[in-house]
Amino acid sequence: MSLFSEFQSKLRYQHYLIAFSGGVDSTALLSLFAKSREIQPHLQLRAIHIHHGLSSNADQWLEHCQHICRQFNIPLITRKVQVNNNNGIEQGAREARYQAIFEERLPNEVVATAHHLQDQTETFFLALKRSSGVKGLSAMQIESELFGMRIFRPLLNDKKEDLETYLRAEKLAWIEDESNADNRYERNFLRNQVLPQLRERWAFFDQAVQTTAQLCYNQQQLLNELLADEFSQNYNENDCTFNVSHFAKYCVNKQNALLRMWLEELGEPLLGEQALAILLKEVIFAPKDANPQYVLRDKTIRRYQNKLFLVPKLSDISNFCAELRIGQILLLPDYLGDVQLFKTAENLTALWRVENHEFKSILPLTDEQITVRFGYSGTVKLHAQDLNRDIKKVWQNLGVPVWQRTRIPLIFYGERLKNAVGFFENFGE
Question: Sign of torsion, CA 404 406 412 417?
């Protein structure tokens, strides 16, 4: 079967967003899609080119991609991105690239990338270096979910030299990224120095790696199936928490597998064995009265009352204080949504909207200034005849995790705490 015939047989969707760098692989991908559209007119195609700004030739590459897309009559989206190299340029460029694609992708579009057989081998070896386990060694699949998007890799079983042969036959030009020769980058080191020797010794080495990756994928799917019931019993879809109250009864392998399933469910990168061991020791099996946490790149895993939470990086909002007027929508800091105040003849209603949740409190009428603040360390009375209680105990009784207590909007009448929206009213003076 020819490259084109095989490609055409894989097209199961109608709308595609094609990642187009202008190199050999993505140019072949774009051309194959354009030819397929001639036979399947229902195909809706767009392309996207990411300008990373890392090369002095990046502007010329952009012009080349615009020219090719005009030639194929495929609309091209162009995005310039800033690369954060805190975790290395390769990782930073990848994250910036996929973030831009995520922002431009339409809901019904499948993202098509030009990963081929040799790319699969490189990905497998990089996973091997990271001690990624069966999941990581599964490398790439022709279809998968990544960054919340459906990713389609129709060239994954094809060799790069076959793509080059195809482009020459079609008389299509492509660009060469000079950074591909820089062996300081891990993928280039494998591509240029390590893998050529292995391929010279074993001609079918890439196919063998592909087979092994597929076997690892199959094993991971089986493992997920065997643990599916237990995972669903402990995973809370509403707040994305994971119950670890029974973890002491499990063997380490089972503990690690469930933790990986949880992190994968939340779209987080895989953790290696050493990182998982630290997570188990310092968070899951930390003393009950501790406030343990494990820091990922931009998020933190925390435990509270035998539940694991994945918490984004939190800003200090302790100094926030804003007046809340009737009918006003008050935007809160650090992605905490907004609060709105309504008035009736008998009372006030405070409505806090954050993400997909709403919290409501009924308040007495007042002539005092009403403000919204965060964080309070005094005492409260939950009803008129109640004793003064330390607010820490109140939060504990309500089951509110430590880090969330300073992120719940508090209503003040003058300088007196009156209400924690959706949680309690303070009857204290």
Answer: positive
Mean pLDDT of 53-76: 93
The residue from 269, 292, 312 where one domain ends is: 312
Question: pTM of the predicted model, to two decimals?
Answer: 0.77
Residue pLDDT, tens place only, 351-400: 999 988 899 999 999 999 999 999 999 899 888 888 889 999 999 999 99
41 and 120 co-located in one domain: yes
The Cα–Cα gap between 162 and 191 comes to 17
- CA dist., res. 343 & res. 276, Å (int): 51
- Is the same domain home to 110 and 192? yes
Q: Which residue from 224, 167, 178 is spatially nearest to 27, judged by alpha carbons?
A: 167
Element (H, E) at 349: strand 348-354
Is 153 in the same domain as 11?
yes
Determine contact, residues 321/373, Cβ cutoff 8 Å.
yes
Q: Is residue 219 part of a domain?
A: no
- The torsion defined by the Cα of 7, 9, 10 and 12, in degrees rounded to 10, comes to 130
Binding site as annotated, residues for ATP: 21-26
- Which residues fall in the annotated binding site? 21-26
| Of 36-45, 130-139, 411-420, minimum mean pLDDT range | 130-139
**CA distance linking residue 300 with residue 310, whole number of Å:** 6
Comparing CA positions, the residue from 169, 167, 194, 189 lying closest to residue 179 is: 189
87, with CB counted inside 10 A (0-12, 13-18, 19+), is exposed
Residue 216: inside a domain: no
The answer to whether position 157 is within a domain reads yes
Tokens of 175: 């660009």
List, for residues 162-182, the tens digit of each pLDDT value.
999 999 999 999 999 888 888
pLDDT of 78 above 80: yes
Q: State the pLDDT confidence band at 326, using cuts at 50, 70 and 90.
A: very high
Q: In terms of residue numbers, what domain contains 254?
A: 237-312
